[in-house]
Structure formats: structure tokens, C-alpha cells
Amino acid sequence: MIEINNVSKWYGSFQVLTDCTTQVSKSEVVVVCGPSGSGKSTLIKCVNALEPFQQGSIVVNGIAVQDPKTDLPKLRAKVGMVFQNFELFPHMTITDNLAIAQIKVLGRSRDEAVDKGLKLLDRVGLKAQAAKFPGQLSGGQQQRVAIARALAMDPICMLFDEPTSALDPEMINEVLDVMVQLAQEGMTMMCVTHEMGFARKVANRVIFMDRGAIVEDAAKEDFFGQPRSERAQAFLAKILNH
Amino acid sequence: MSDFDFSVIVQNWAFLAEGLRYTLQVTLTAMIGGILIGTVLALMRLSSIAPLQWFAAGYVNVFRSVPLVQVILAFYLILPLVLQMITGKQIPVGAANSAYFTFTIFEAAYYSEIMRSGIQSVPRGQVGAGYALGFTYGQAMRYVVLPQAFRNMLPVLLTQTIILFQDVSLVYAIGATDFFGAADKITQRDLRPVEMYTTVAVVYFIICFTLSRLVKWLQSHIAIIR
């Protein structure tokens, strides 16, 4: 589904990604972790070309992202993305947030789009909030709406960029619950997150990044059981001990 | 000072009202046209295409560096020549008509700077979110960025419009009859400058003060909840 081959990226002369190679198969859940500044968010944003990269290739569902001829809006419409800061549109109601891209990008009728949006809103437990504006919701609620907004486009896979990092601790679980449910339904997911509980529960593979490179790419059992690299061991020891 | 005679206002009210109507029409035209052109200029200025950036920057810098009254005069003289070049016919434009054009073009430079800071006030992640949903550049601007930019900047846009409303009086230089111009013409004829200019000042004050209260009200009522 997602193939990342030897991707390197520079900001000027500073290299932020070094020869990253991995893949996500259909219905697979891959968790990407690593210290801050390790390039994990940058890598996931390369997958739907929100960030350009200079070397290597990324192929999503058979379409080469870096190819200048690729219709990026069309590709991105099929790849759901959830951001650290939710990025709901603050000037629109929750209903409009859910409907607008369905109408403008997929060409659905307004009724159809609202109907679909409300169903998904119900699924994330927020049907009562449909008429409100994003600013009237808590962070956890906003992030659940953001997930519903991405799902409304019927994505073939979902990218999560630290979806719980901006949340108060008591709101993290309501978002993770939605993500776990999605994973269990067979959604293909690539998640940048530090939530190791989530990784243990639903991940198939865990990728550990450090200084722009993929240091460890292992099945969940191997990663948590016996990480090969010292960096990953040290990282795990730090974040699992609290 | 015992011989104030405000009957001169009453007698000439229709002429003054006609001038005021013209002033409001020019203001409204230049506001709408200026914001539209200004928004396009702002998008050009912020685009990644160098020639578009240069054009927009040049446009803004030129019009902000020349006194408005000179631009009014220049366009009044040049516009008929340009039209003649394009159409090959002599088209009498007239002072009153050329002002609509001049103010729209001139104000666009100021509105574009306001829209530019408005666009920059929208967090970058919002554009990313729009793109991630499959929006094209145009759609991301149209549905995500510009509505927020416009809302954030509405008080400043209106403040600029108040300035524009007052500046329309500069068409005096080309002899067009705006509100101030109408008052001035009556003054020349009836020789009642104190009554006339006082009335004009009061009317300008009432309109501008009302608008600036509206701006204040808007500032507290239309802010986007974040």
C-alpha cells in the first residue's frame, strides 16, 4: 500500500531524512516512534507529499508521489491524515468541516456529504456537537472530529502525525480508542506516536527513527521484546519507565 | 458672528446629496474592486513564483509611494489615451468616471497589504489540512485560508475604507463633484463658507464615527473562536 524507498530530504544543507526505506501493507498498522527531531513527522508528511523530498521514491497504492505528473490532490483525497494540532477549520461548523471536502473534492451532494459526516460523527461519539464550531470543543473532541473528517473521504489508508501529543492526558484515551477501533476494522495505518500502549495493542510493526534515519524496523513482538539497536533500547527504557 | 445663515444648506440640499451619493458610490466601488484586486495581489506576493511576487511587490510599492492626488490627475489624463490606443476611438471618460477606476486601482495596493497579513495570520497547518483532504491550491485558498484571512482582517479593511471615504474628496483636483466638491462649488457661488464647511465636516464626522464604532463592534463580535 505504502512503499518508501531510500528517501532522503534536506533543508538547505541540513539533512533531515537519510535513506529511509520501509513499507506498509494493506490492513497493516505501523507505529513510527523516536525522539523529537528524529524526522518521523517529516517522513509521514512525505507520504502524501505535504513535504517534498529530494531523493528516493514513495509509492502509494501504485502511484509515485514524487512524480511531477502525479495528480497530488487526487492522491491525497484517498489518503486520510490526522494532525497533531487537529487543524479543523475554525470558521466552519463541525458539520461543514466534515462535509466540505466530500462536496468540493469528491463531488458528493451536500445531503449525501452531511449524512455521511453525521454517521461518522456518531461513530466517534460526537453527534450532539454537529452544529458547534471547533473552538467550542475540547482537544480530544476536536481530534475525534478530525479523524471522522478524514474517514468521510473513504481513505484507503490513514496517516496519524502525533495525534495525541497536543492533548491533555485525560483526553488521550478517547482518541486512542477511536484509533484502536479503526485498526481492528482493518484500516491501513501509519502512526507517528509515543503511545506505546497503543503500539502494543494494535501495531503490527514498530519503526524507530533517530536523526533522520530508520534505526529499527521490526515486528511489534521483536521491538518490545528485544530491540537490536542501543538507541532504541535506551529510548524504550526512557518512555516505558514512567 | 450673529449672521449665520444655514438656509444655504437647505436650499442646496439636493445638490449636496447628489455629491454625497457620488462619494459613497466611489467608496463602495473602490472598496469591493480594491479588495478583490488586492486579494489577488496578496496571493501573487505570497506565491512561490518569482515574477508574480515581483509584479505584486512593484504594484504595491509604486502606488504607496505616489501621492493620491497625483495618481488621480495622472489617470484622469492617461485613461482616455489608453482607451483610445486600445479601441482606436476617442472615448470621453470624464472626471467623475475616471475616479472610479483610479480609486479601485490605488486602494488595491493598500488592501493587498492588509490581505497579505491576513493570509499570513492563518496557521500554515490549515493549508496542510486542506491539501491533505485533496483540495487544490485554489480550493485551499477559497475555502480555508481566505475566509479566515478576511474575517481576521475585517476591522482593518473597514478602517481603510473609512480613510478611502475621506480621500474621495481629492477628486476636487479634477473637478468632479463629490460631497466636498459640491459644497465647495456652492460656497464659491453663495459665499457662505463657514456654514457650508461646518455642515460638511459634521456630516463626514457622523458617517466616519458611526463606521468606526461599527469596526469596534465587529472586532469583539466576529472573532473566530480558536
From TrEMBL, chain A:
PROSITE patterns xref list: ABC_TRANSPORTER_1, ABC_TRANSPORTER_2
Keywords annotated in UniProt: Amino-acid transport, ATP-binding, Cell membrane, Membrane, Nucleotide-binding, Transport
Highest taxon above the source species: Bacteria
Compartments where found: Cell membrane
One Pfam family, short name: ABC_tran
Transmembrane segments: none
Annotated SMART domains: AAA (SM00382)
Domain ABC transporter: 2-236
Lipid bilayer topology: Peripheral membrane protein
InterPro entries: AAA+_ATPase (IPR003593), ABC_ATPase_HisP-typ (IPR030679), ABC_transporter-like_ATP-bd (IPR003439), ABC_transporter-like_CS (IPR017871), MetN_ABC_transporter-like (IPR050086), P-loop_NTPase (IPR027417)
GO (cellular component) term, any one: plasma membrane
One MF term in the entry's GO annotations: ABC-type amino acid transporter activity
Protein name stated in the entry: L-glutamate ABC transporter ATP-binding protein /L-aspartate ABC transporter ATP-binding protein
Similarity comment text for this entry: Belongs to the ABC transporter superfamily.
TrEMBL record, chain B:
Key words of the record: Amino-acid transport, Cell membrane, Membrane, Transmembrane, Transmembrane helix, Transport
SUPFAM superfamilies attached to this UniProt entry: MetI-like
GTP-binding as UniProt keyword: no
InterPro entries membership: AA_ABC_transptr_permease_3TM (IPR010065), ArtM/GltK/GlnP/TcyL/YhdX-like (IPR043429), MetI-like (IPR000515), MetI-like_sf (IPR035906)
Recorded topology in the membrane: Multi-pass membrane protein
GO molecular function: transmembrane transporter activity
Gene Ontology CC: one annotated term: ATP-binding cassette (ABC) transporter complex
Top-level division of the source organism's lineage: Bacteria
Domain ABC transmembrane type-1: 20-215
Regions that span the bilayer: 22-44, 56-79, 91-111, 156-176, 196-215
Primary localisation category: membrane
Short name of any one Pfam family annotated for the protein: BPD_transp_1
The UniProt record lists the keyword Membrane: yes
Entry's family note: Belongs to the binding-protein-dependent transport system permease family. HisMQ subfamily.
Subunit structure, interactors included: The complex is composed of two ATP-binding proteins (GltL), two transmembrane proteins (GltJ and GltK) and a solute-binding protein (GltI).
Name of the featured protein: Glutamate/aspartate import permease protein GltK
